[in-house]
Design goal:
Layout: H1 2-15, H2 25-47, H3 64-87, H4 90-93, H5 106-124, H6 132-143, H7 155-162, H8 179-184, H9 203-224, H10 232-246, H11 252-289
Helix pairs in contact: 1-2, 2-6, 2-10, 3-6, 3-9, 5-10, 7-11, 10-11
């Protein structure tokens, strides 16, 4: 299973068409999937690498890990379908991708930010053990439902929004997020995030749906961030980190809390500068008409 996933990821990385070379948003996702579900698998069964103590709570010598890898392959294929399908949608083609910012030093600044980002990402990914929890967490979810057999569906996305608010403004206690029962299933030995494959607990259908939507999100971001000759390159670098880490850190509460400022700034940037672009076109048409 791991070998099949490895081949599919490598083929996708080197054979697909892309607007940016050599590293784009999908490249970062491929890298994280490769580390979390391919390298980790071979490290466990062939290299015999010692992982943190909590990983020994998962029995990796039965069929659960293989079922988990099958789910990963299904999810990854659905992600690729989402990336491909969404590109042909009319609303995606209409998304803005040109923003006018006059700054002579922006290109140099963008190169510096890009180099620093690659360095920090390399340091962060130095240890395979940092990403091993996704494999063990998914294998544990297959064998033991840490949600007590109750499908959470998209309930955790609602909790993510509620957890942005202060408890003083809420007349009730916010229920546990997906990460909390997942950590409890490992005897609270360490905080274990929820990966994207085990986030929506409705079997294969949930895996296909959530990874398809994730692939659609990647295509939407690539469309908006296509022009990297201005300030958009800064957002692009930020979103490389964002999408790459969503494969293994997919809990909506943590995603929203850690990235709400990025989302708000990105939204205002699109609204404000797109209006300027429209205004420039309108003024130009008026001058021509006169």
């Amino acid at each position: 299973m791991a070998s099949i996933l490895e081949i599919v990821i490598i083929l996708n990385e080197f054979l697909r068409k892309r607007n940016v070379k050599p590293f784009d948003l999908m490249s970062s996702v491929n890298l994280l999937f490769f580390l979390s579900f391919v390298i980790t698998f071979f490290s466990i069964y062939f290299l015999k690498i010692d992982f943190p103590a909590w990983t020994y709570l998962v029995e990796v010598n039965n069929t659960s890990p293989f079922t988990a890898l099958l789910y990963v392959i299904i999810g990854y294929m659905a992600l690729l379908v989402g990336v491909k399908f969404i590109k042909s949608c009319r609303f995606v083609k209409r998304l803005p991708n040109e923003f006018y910012i006059d700054s002579s030093s922006m290109e140099k600044f963008a190169h510096i930010i890009g180099i620093l980002s690659v360095i920090f990402l390399a340091i962060f990914m130095y240890s395979v053990g940092e990403f091993s929890f996704s494999f063990y967490s998914l294998a544990n979810a297959v064998e033991n439902s840490f949600f007590n057999g109750i499908p959470r569906l998209f309930f955790d996305f609602i909790l993510g929004i509620l957890n942005l608010l202060s408890s003083a403004f809420l007349p009730f206690n916010v229920p546990q997020t997906a990460t909390q029962p997942n950590t409890e299933s490992f005897l609270n030995m360490s905080g274990i995030p929820v990966d994207i494959i085990s986030l929506v607990r409705v079997g294969v259908a949930g895996i296909i749906l959530i990874t398809f939507l994730f692939g659609a999100l990647i295509s939407i971001l690539e469309k908006i961030l296509a022009n990297k000759n201005n300030l958009m390159v800064v957002f692009y670098v930020q979103f490389i980190f964002f999408v790459s880490l969503r494969g293994t850190y997919a809990g909506p509460t943590n995603v929203l809390k850690n990235n709400v400022c990025l989302f708000v700034a990105f939204l205002f940037f699109i609204l404000l500068f797109r209006k300027k672009q429209i205004a420039k076109k309108s003024n130009y048409q008026l001058k021509v008409g006169n």
